[in-house]
Design the sequence.
């Protein structure tokens, strides 16, 4: 395996072990609210520390952007690791078994490596730019589903920013009526990995952060899929709004979503983003 991916996998597995070991003492954990419907536990923080420690040992001159600790490490470097130590914290805190660790490496702003690890199923999704995407070392591809009829879609609810609820419900209603089903599993990074693996035919969500998306975006691109914002542009990192599927289904989903776009959803800036990140 690619040497940088090997280190990222080691970090993801170490974080996964911490998360799984903490599962039977969830009711004893200290949980802090970060914002509306947004919580963080000691486990998120401990897992992030472990990941950064592992990566930093191998790459002392790199920088790190972690969900819990923000930006740290070298100020001037071309390499930034983007880390979501526990994606699906709400699920984890409720004992709902759907969460993962997500780690990506950016080189000069371009995603070069991505690892998503589901510690309960021990499923390891990896991608390196130009080298394809894999699940437990077997190549994966996005699905060939070429229409909404029969498609299984994933999504996330815009529960943190209530401004988008009406627009979102319009999209949901119009997509729902033609598909085989829609899932809201509660871990955006794992949803993206599932699109890469063809388990979900498409996915959309409003209001994601870089650490929710970075590894999943590369997995999907390397598995033959398309990732855009809801308006079909490449500004998903900037806006936090994501639409992804194979090329044909992506075009169809975008056509259904388009009439529901508000000015706020067409904007390519996330108002809650920290410009220093
Ligand atoms: C959340 C999950 C969830 C998505 C939220 C994310 P967290 O991440 O990915 O599926 O709907 O937008 O914030 O907080 O559990 O790392
Ligand atoms: Ca997350
Ligand atoms: Ca998280």
Sequence:
């Amino acid at each position: 395996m690619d040497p940088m991916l090997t280190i990222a996998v080691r970090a993801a597995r170490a974080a996964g072990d911490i998360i799984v070991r903490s599962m039977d003492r969830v009711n004893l954990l200290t949980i802090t609210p970060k914002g509306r419907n947004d919580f963080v536990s000691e486990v998120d923080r401990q897992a992030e520390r472990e990941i950064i420690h592992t990566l930093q040992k191998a790459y002392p001159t790199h920088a790190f952007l972690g969900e819990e600790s923000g930006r740290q490490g070298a100020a001037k470097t071309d390499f930034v690791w983007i880390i979501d130590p526990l994606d699906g914290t709400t699920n984890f805190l409720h004992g709902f078994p759907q969460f993962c660790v997500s780690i990506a490496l950016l080189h000069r702003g371009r995603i070069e490596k991505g690892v998503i690890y589901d510690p309960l199923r021990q499923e390891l999704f990896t991608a390196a730019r130009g080298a394809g995407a894999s699940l437990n070392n077997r190549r994966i591809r996005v699905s060939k589903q070429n229409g909404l009829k029969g498609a299984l879609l994933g999504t996330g609810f815009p529960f943190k920013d209530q401004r988008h609820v009406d627009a979102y419900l319009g999209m949901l209603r119009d997509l729902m009526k033609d598909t085989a089903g829609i899932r809201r599993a509660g871990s955006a990074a794992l949803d993206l990995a599932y699109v890469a693996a063809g388990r979900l035919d498409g996915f959309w969500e409003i209001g994601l952060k870089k650490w929710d998306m970075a590894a999943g975006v590369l997995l999907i691109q390397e598995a033959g899929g398309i990732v855009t914002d809801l308006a079909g542009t490449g500004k998903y990192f900037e806006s936090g709004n994501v639409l992804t599927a194979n090329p044909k289904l992506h075009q169809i989903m975008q056509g259904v979503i388009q009439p529901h776009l508000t000015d706020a959803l067409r904007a390519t800036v996330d108002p809650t983003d920290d410009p220093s990140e």
